[in-house]
Design brief:
Structural class: alpha/beta
CATH superfamily of the largest domain: Medium-chain alcohol dehydrogenases, catalytic domain
Radius of gyration: 19 Å
Low-confidence stretches: none
CATH class of the largest domain: Alpha Beta
Number of domains: 2
Mean pLDDT: 95
Number of strands: 15
Shape: globular
Distance between the termini: 11 Å
Strand content: 25-35%
Bound molecules: NADP nicotinamide-adenine-dinucleotide phosphate
């Protein structure tokens, strides 16, 4: 089968290639999916670049034995192991795996759910790491309540477009921060207010926020705290692009340490993919609460360009690869 193979760490154009690899073999608990679409999140690009270097062992765990990369996909069940009872050949599914950027991917039924009704494969594949991150940030770490005011930076990106929609579904008042070209899109997915960061610095404005979900990391901590309510929470999700051994990790850690001295809280977090939240996201999708914003769609043969595109950091929602 054809797949997107990573050979070492570095620039996507230098270490990625499209090539022939063996179709994955499943064991008794496995599910083989004929992939129809796979989404790319920015973390996958960090994994290709291998930055920060201290994370390289972790990044390697997300690569399939064949060298194929990619974590989130949607497709059709091609084969199931003899212990698999929840899925059958022909089911349309979405979820996670190792080696999503290929014609076939092996995973388990624990990591899959039936594709949301009415969703395309592209849309279903986009409900991946970014959507889990937005859900867990707002619900678990942010404990967002109806009526609270949340500010989402990077509102136009992979995480931000899910965060705006999930925060609205939770009954919050939502302000999205994005660039001029994305104002209409961020409004269209439900933001009550939009701030164009090229024209206005939200840390100099009047409104105070109960929760800031920061997917960019462009502001200093004192500036962020100046627009938090007295017991507000800053969730530090984004940081300037990782570099060197530890670059990119300092910002969220600083946020955590400084909150020890204040009623205002700051917290970094790492999202996880699990079956319960996959079901929760499917429900949000089927109830019309989240609709993935799809940016570019690349054929598998252009997967290297796709990864490089996402790596440039200007995604409008999520970009996907189709097979
Ligand atoms: N905690 C976790 O487990 C976890 C999981 C996933 C992702 N993350 C992190 O979350 C961050 C965001 O990821 P993502 O997938 O959403 O990235 P993305 O898809 O690349 O989106 C970033 C968005 O931010 C916009 N942007 C750039 N500069 C901005 C600024 N100063 N103010 C507001 N918006 C700005 C970009 O659009 P324009 O350039 O056009 O404005 C783009 O739409 C990354 O740092 C990633 O590492 C963390």
């Amino acid at each position: 089968m054809k797949g997107t193979i990573q050979n070492g760490f570095g620039d996507p154009n230098e270490v990625l290639g499209i090539g022939e690899v063996a179709t994955p073999v499943i064991d008794d608990d496995g599910v083989l999916v004929r992939v129809r679409a796979a989404s790319i999140h920015i973390g996958a690009v960090y994994g290709v670049r291998g930055l920060p270097k201290v994370m390289r062992l972790v990044f390697k765990r997300f690569i399939a034995k064949s060298g194929v990369i990619g974590q989130n996909m949607a497709g059709v069940v091609e084969a199931v192991g003899k212990n698999v009872t929840q899925l059958a050949v022909g089911d349309e599914v979405f979820g996670s795996c190792k080696g999503a950027f290929a014609e076939f991917a092996a995973t388990t039924s624990e990591e899959l759910a039936l594709k949301p009704t009415g969703f395309t494969f592209e849309q279903a594949s986009a409900i991946g790491v970014s959507a889990f991150t937005a859900l867990q940030a707002l619900r678990d770490h942010g404990k967002l309540e109806a009526g609270q005011h949340v500010l989402v930076t990077g509102a136009s990106g992979g995480v931000g477009t899910f965060a705006v929609q999930i925060a609205k579904a939770m009954g919050a008042e939502v302000t999205g921060v994005c660039s001029t070209r994305n104002l209409d899109m961020v409004r269209s997915i439900g933001a009550d207010h939009v701030i164009d960061y090229t024209q206005q610095d939200f840390t100099k404005g009047e409104p105070r926020y109960d929760l800031i979900f920061d997917n960019v990391g462009a502001h200093s901590l004192p500036d962020m705290r100046s627009v938090l309510t007295t017991d507000g929470l800053l969730l530090a999700n984004g940081a300037p692009a990782p570099a060197g051994w530890f670059g990119g990790l300092g910002h969220p850690l600083k946020v955590a340490v400084l909150s020890i001295f204040s009623k205002q809280q700051g917290r970094p977090f790492v999202s996880t993919e699990n079956k319960e939240d996959l079901a929760a996201l499917k429900e949000l999708a089927e109830n019309g609460k989240i609709t993935p914003v799809i940016d570019q769609v690349f054929p598998l043969d252009s997967a290297v360009d796709a990864v490089a595109f996402v790596g440039a950091g200007h995604n409008q929602g999520t970009s996907v690869i189709t097979m």
